[in-house]
Amino acid sequence: MTIFRKLIFWVPALSCAGLIFFLSSQSQLPQVGPQFENKDKVEHFIAYTTLWFCILLPLRYGHRLSLTSSILLAILLTSAYGATDEFHQRYVPNRTCDVTDWMADTFGGFIAGSAYWVYESHRRSKAHR
How far is CA 90 from CA 23, 40, 114, in A? Predict the structure, then answer.
């Protein structure tokens, strides 16, 4: 696979990371949908679950890493990006650096990785029958 084709696999991950960065750079976000306690944690979880899947694609199919390596590296990269994004928010007016937001980010990646592991394990066991 050419380097260009490998780079193409990173477009969704970079787009998702860019969108997260753009939203976290806003002093105030529009409130969409019903409001409930810890809604921001749910939003972090969903955003970083999505980012995890976008990071998994190039690792698994562009760089052809093993299932275990791609899942773990995607979780690590998702968590690291969440940490840097929270640090970045320290410098955005009306925003804060919140460890619990980072935990929701990391949990989103972990749950996505766990779900994908179960899916692949089930799919492979069916193929061997």
Answer: 14, 17, 31
29: left (phi over 0), alpha (psi -120 to 50) or beta: beta
Instruction: Kindly state the tokens that stand for 62.
Output: 């562009």
Domain ranges of the chain: 39-127
Angle at 96 between CA 90 and CA 100, to 5 degrees: 115
Place of tokens 């306690």: 37
Model pTM? Answer: 0.91
Nearest to 56 by CA among 103, 16, 83, 89: 16
* 53-67 pLDDT, tens digit each: 999 999 999 999 999
